[in-house]
Amino acid sequence: MSASVSASRVGVWLIGARGSVATTVVAGAAAVTAGLHPPVGLVTETPPFAGSGLPPLSALVFGGHDTVDCPLPKRAEALAAGGVLPPGLPAAVATELAAADAEIRPGGPVAGDTRDEDELIAAFATDIQDFVRRCRLTRAVVVNVASTEPAPTGRELPPSSLYAAAALRAGCPYVNFTPSTGLHHPALAPLAAASGLPYAGRDGKTGQTLLRSVLGPMFTQRALDVRAWSGTNLLGGGDGAALADPAAAAAKNAGKERVLADTLGAAPAGRVHIDDVPALGDWKTAWDHIAFDGFLGTRMILQTIWQGCDSALAAPLVLDLARLTARAHETGRSGPLTDLGFFFKDPVGEGPAALGEQYRALVGLAARWRNDGGSVGRRGGGAGGAGGPGVAGGTGGTGRAGGFGGFGPFGGEGEPGGFGGEGEPGVSGAQGGPGGPGGSGGEAGPDVADGRGRPGGPGRSGDVRAHGVPGRPDDTELGGALDGAAR
Length: 487
Known about the structure:
Order of helices and strands: HEHEHHHEHEHEHEHEHHEEEHEHEE
Structural class: alpha/beta
Strand content: 15-25%
Shape: globular
Radius of gyration: 25 Å
Oligomer: single chain
Distance between the termini: 21 Å
Largest sheet: 7 strands, parallel
């Protein structure tokens, strides 16, 4: 595989990799890539994101952790039978589903697991690192799409936080698409800050709360006094079963309530009730009842009903987030990705709560990437051209500069320059020409203006190709090339 091809491959490591959302993510990416379906619901496929350097859908490679063993092709067939996936799609993308299934590793902790927290984190991190090496990926993004867990009550790390810590240890950016704790655990805050990695979350905004983030600002901007806002969710599937636990439901509702408090200025009276209705499967109905006062205290009511398919609503957002977070990592971003608040009920960092303002921030991020003209401090120069028989390969290009030191501890480090070209085989057994030297690494990134960021890491030297091995007398075998170790 050439350097240019391997450089385009980006891993998406899904926590809950055999669930409905993850299966729809893998099947959907394959279907859109193959032109079987249009990219409806994919924000990153709309015009404002063109030319912003996002990895293409065809470059994404899927793997993940799960505690269940139902193969993805079989899971996809069940989703098609339930109307979540189009008929015939599982068969059409069976190869892609099987490839992703082969990259899924056992999660945990499971009943009887005697490993302590650090052993579990180390095992999960090793799985992720092996995935990156085995698939020859440029980077990987870890995305939590597992069922909602109750909020922790003690010092023990819940499973979502074990996986989040493993992502940091593996050197991967992290996205929490669930209301589970993940990186929000106090014990992980110092690790997240010291990692220099970007992260985003939490709790994907797919239905009822998406509508609330539009209606809340409407009432505020029209100076209408919301007296009460109550709601009911009816849903089945894995989420319905998980949210039947009152503690898990409370964790879910916290994000819904935050949207109203942030957009209205204070939380109105009223609650959201969540009911598990197994017969609904992956479909949900969300009903909101909004009591508000108009001019001269006239009392009025607005009611909304949202009926949708959870997996079909969530999957394109997961793909959007994987692409955006990978790009943020490529450009040297670190810490909370506040510009991605558009996708979440309870976004990290300080940012707007109204959907329109969040969208403007997201589009602004894409525009900055487009105007910056390429990645910063990540890719080295391209490979030098191949030398002719007995002639040295060309010189690798110069690596780009390291990223700016952000509010995290370090600026981005310049990656190695590209490989020098291989020498072609010698004629009639003559020695092949030497490969050209790798390009120079990127420069160090500067401190940020307020002095909190430390200097960016130094650029590293490019890799160097060694001499080609002798060609065979019949001139049919290429002179090989050995990777140098000038790192």
